[in-house]
Each structure stands twice: as C-alpha cells, then as structure tokens.
Amino acid sequence: MTYTQIINVCEDIIAEKLSIFEGIRKLIICAYDAHIENDELFISLRAIDSQTDHLPLINKQLSDTFIKQIQEEEEFYKKEVFALVNNILKKYKTKIEVS
Predict the structure, then answer these.
(1) Residues 25, 86: contact at Cβ < 8 Å?
(2) 35 phi and psi, to 5 degrees?
(3) Fewer beta carbons within 10 Å, N or C terminal of the chain?
(4) Could you tell me what percent of the chain has a pLDDT over 70?
(5) Which whole number is the average pLDDT over 11-36?
C-alpha cells in the first residue's frame, strides 16, 4: 500500500464512507505496508484497535442491539480518531504531492 492509499482511507473515514473501526483497521494495514507502523499516529490507532478488537465490523448478520453497541463504541472514539486522521493527512499528504 502506498501513501496515496493511506490518504484515501483517511478521507473515507472523515467522509464517513468507512466506519471508524473499519478505517482504523485499514490504516494499520497500510502503515505496515508503507513501513511507517512505528509512527506515533499509527501507534495511537493501534491502541484504539487493541481496545476494540473484540468488536466485529458492522454487517447485516448482527443483531440490532449489537450494532447499536458497536455504534456507541465508535462514537466514543470518533473525535480522537478524526484528530489522528487529520494529523495523518497533514503529515503524509505532502509525501504524495512531492513524489
């Protein structure tokens, strides 16, 4: 994965095209692929993922009650994740513009 993919995932999270947890999980994969997994921003995302990895991504097979629980957890982390994602955009968007 490239910096462009990281930027695209970040933008999809902000636009709410991806759920918070789905976006975090994709960003973590992108960070490893780009060899930037030790960046403090991605370490923070991994910490959130670690705290929420017991929750599945929302799908049609889940009960309404479970979906609501996942949505409440996502809402709890939303402000923090959006701040991290915005900082990732600031830091890495210039890398794709320079390339």
Answers:
(1) no
(2) 60, 35
(3) C
(4) 96
(5) 96
